[in-house]
Amino acid sequence: ILGHHYTRTFLETAVASMNAGCNLELSYGMRNNVFMHISKALAMGNITLQMLRDRVRPLFYTRMRLGEFDPPAMNPYSALDLSVVQSPEHRSLSLEAAVKSFVLLKNVRGTLPLRARDLPGKRLVVVGPFADNPRVLFGDYAPVPEPQYIYTPRRGLETLPANVSFVAGCREPRCQQYSRAEVVGAAGAADVVVVCLGTGTDLETEAKDRRDLSLPGHQLELLQDAVQ
């Protein structure tokens, strides 16, 4: 927090934040956070009691609007139990949201969509570190996933009426150990190749940024080998 050198102490930061209109601090896991110094700032006269009330009022107003202080009987979510978690209706809605969120940057010669009627007898290979690794499919702030409900690209594509095979090429997003022969052999024998690449939280999350947008490790090489 002090690394930007805008203030020198948490007390100064608390005062500056209050004056700027900030009324909420995200400080999970911090034993000594900035807003713990508000009482000291108030005692020293750096902020007024009226300012403190003005900052707190929207917080409680929002909590009231959300029903946080209502009796449990008034909360419509109180009647829900674990049976609604991953219910068929919710999974169907999740699938619809996923389908509608795809962004197709290029569709050379109308390759997509793959049509089930054209796939029987075809050889489809899925390659890449993201093809069948459930752990790397979830981003920062994701919930703890239930393995039985995770459809990796490989698992999803295996539901198609095609001869589906899989090779990773490299097992993790860092892709330091790459088997070129594995990818070239699988892709060369396939009618359709699906390449699954990316970064994942191993390489970038909040407070762990990358210096460039290049594919990590040997992933670009993997892609080029699959295309070739």
User: How would a textbook summarize the main sheet?
Assistant: 3 strands, parallel
Please state how the strands of the largest beta sheet are arranged side by side: 2-1-3
Would you tell me the structural class of the helices and strands?
mainly alpha
Number of domains: 2
**CATH class label of the largest domain:** Alpha Beta
CATH topology of the largest domain: Rossmann fold
Rg to the nearest angstrom?
Answer: 26 Å
Number of helical stretches of at least 4 residues: 7
CATH superfamily of the largest domain: Glycoside hydrolase family 3 C-terminal domain
- Low-pLDDT segments, ≥5 res: none
Keywords: Glycosidase, Hydrolase
Domain Glycoside hydrolase family 3 C-terminal: 103-226
InterPro entries: BXL (IPR044993), GH (IPR017853), Glyco_hydro_3_C (IPR002772), Glyco_hydro_3_C_sf (IPR036881), Glyco_hydro_3_N_sf (IPR036962)
Protein name: XYL2 arabinofuranosidase
Description:
InterPro entries: BXL, GH, Glyco_hydro_3_C, Glyco_hydro_3_C_sf, Glyco_hydro_3_N_sf. One of its GO terms (biological process) is arabinan catabolic process. This is XYL2 arabinofuranosidase. This protein has 228 residues and is mainly α. The chain folds into 2 domains: 10-74, no CATH class; 104-226, Rossmann fold (3-Layer(aba) Sandwich), CATH 3.40.50. It is built from 7 helices and 3 strands, in the order ααααβαβαβα. Strands 2-1-3 form a 3-stranded parallel sheet. Helix 5 links the parallel strand 1 and strand 2. The longest helix is centred in the N-terminal third of the chain and has 17 residues, at 49-65.
